[in-house]
Amino acid sequence: MTRYRGIWLLPALGLAALAFLGIPAYLMHMVIQILLWGLVYTAWSMMGRFGTISLGHGAFLGIGAYGATLLWNFYGVSPWIGIPLSVVLTVLVALAIGYPCFRLKVLGHYFALVTLALSEVVQRGIIAGRDVTGGSLGLTPHSVIGGSLFAFRFPNKDHFFLIALAVWLFGLWVWRRLDRSMTRVSMLASSSADHEDAAAAVGINVTREKMKVLVISASLTAFAGSMLSQYFMYINPETLSGVMVSLQMLFASITGGMYTTIGPTVGAVITIALTEFLRVLFGTQFIGGANTLYGIMLIVLVIFMPAGICGLAARWFEGKKRC
Asked: Most buried of 93, 119, 142, 310 (most Cβ within 10 A)?
């Protein structure tokens, strides 16, 4: 176990050193995005890992982002308090949706449709409440001149980078703990309606285990949404809520490999690098180009690499060891 901890410690220290190397601001901006979106995709993969496909995580991301921002703008509640409150609100929404679904055995594509509706409801609600949320034009948190610890504002990106690195590592730690716990065994044992009956017969509380995974996944997603809103200082319903964001999570997790700890982060590297490359290359002349390429790549990956890039690499290394 100590050996594996050392393996994780070295890359973490290497990433932390970036804050003291004076790398260009644009590169630091890209790394922070990868870490925060990597946390989002890692949170989603906790659901997909056990065969529970959710298209509603865009709703959880939006609640987290808008919750903390609205509390700050209208009531002056510090993000240090607003972020936990928005996570709690997200958990309550997840419980309200998840418990009746799992209790009534709404599984598979039916559960995906329920979460799809939730994502759409949250996005439409944000757009409809334009007097409060800014609607489709988006919302900007009230700015503070200079750095302010109370307002979660920092004088340069290096400070935020260290925070993003810490929360990303925390997300990986939660993923590994969940993957190595009895919850993993319980979820795999109840992966279908027929298996649920067998799992319940041997004493597994299927509803509780599914709710546990949903709550952990939703809370991490909301937390990441709050962090993204504090970093970008601008949020809108297209980029931090809704169905397209949920599909983006699915694409990145499958691309990197949802069955490995680092896979969703690899997906974040690919999606962000691809988006930036197309933006620089085409500007506004190829609107929707990233989504088009996402779709093509997703088809290819599902057919030829269903375990994702990291899953393929893991199988390759295992084959080399056997040789």
From this structure: 119
In whole angstroms, give the CA distance from residue 208 to residue 186: 10
165: which 2 tokens? 């690195």
**Residue 211 CB contacts under 8 Å (≥ 6 apart), including other chains:** 95, 98, 99, 102
How much is the pTM?
A: 0.88
CA distance 138 to 148: 23
CA–CA separation, 110 and 48 (whole Å): 15
Question: What residues contact 181, with CB distance under 8 A and at least 6 apart?
Answer: none
Residue 44's H or E segment, with its range, is helix 25-48
What would the two tokens of residue 243 be?
A: 């169905």
Three-class DSSP category at 288:
coil
Three-class secondary structure of residue 148 per DSSP = strand
Query: What is the percent of the chain where pLDDT is above 90?
Result: 33
State pLDDT tens for residues 27-82: 888 989 999 999 999 999 988 887 788 898 999 999 999 999 999 999 989 999 99
CB 152 within 8 A of CB 78: yes
CA distances from 301 to 257, 269, 291, 297 (A): 10, 16, 15, 6
Residue recorded with tokens 């979660």:
152
